[in-house]
Amino acid sequence: MSKYFTCRNCGADVPIEACGCPECGSDRETGWSEAERVIALSEKDAQIVFSLLENPPEPNAQLKAAFEKHKAFSGDK
Ligand SMILES: [Zn+2]
Q1: Which of 9, 25, 38, 63 lies 20 to 30 A from 54 at CA?
Q2: How far from each other are the two terminal CA atoms of the chain, in whole angstroms?
Q3: How far is C-alpha 59 from the chain's CA centre?
Q4: pLDDT of 23-59, one tens digit each?
């Protein structure tokens, strides 16, 4: 189910959600492209939203802010 991208340092297949290359230890600070950096952030945002949907939280300013941010970002009405 995981998506993979190619490590720019060693060419290994690296799961998108991985924090670093399992083969050579490169991480997104040292080895990935800007495009892959954006994907990693989007995955993180998606996880936040999914966790909110599955476990409706007590109203919490930080969570509400995160949700509003996602709505604005995705163009939701
Ligand atoms: Zn690598």
Answers
A1: 38
A2: 30
A3: 24
A4: 888 886 665 554 555 556 577 888 888 888 888 767 6
Q: 48 alpha carbon to ligand 1 midpoint, in Å?
A: 28
| C-beta pairs of 37-43 under 8 Å, 24+ apart in sequence | 39/5, 40/16, 43/16, 43/17
More confident residue, 55 or 77: 55
The rounded distance, in Å, linking the Cα atoms of 14 and 40 is: 12
Eight-state DSSP code of residue 3: -
Q: How far is the CA of 45 from the centre of ligand 1 (A)?
A: 25
**3-class SS of residue 31:** coil
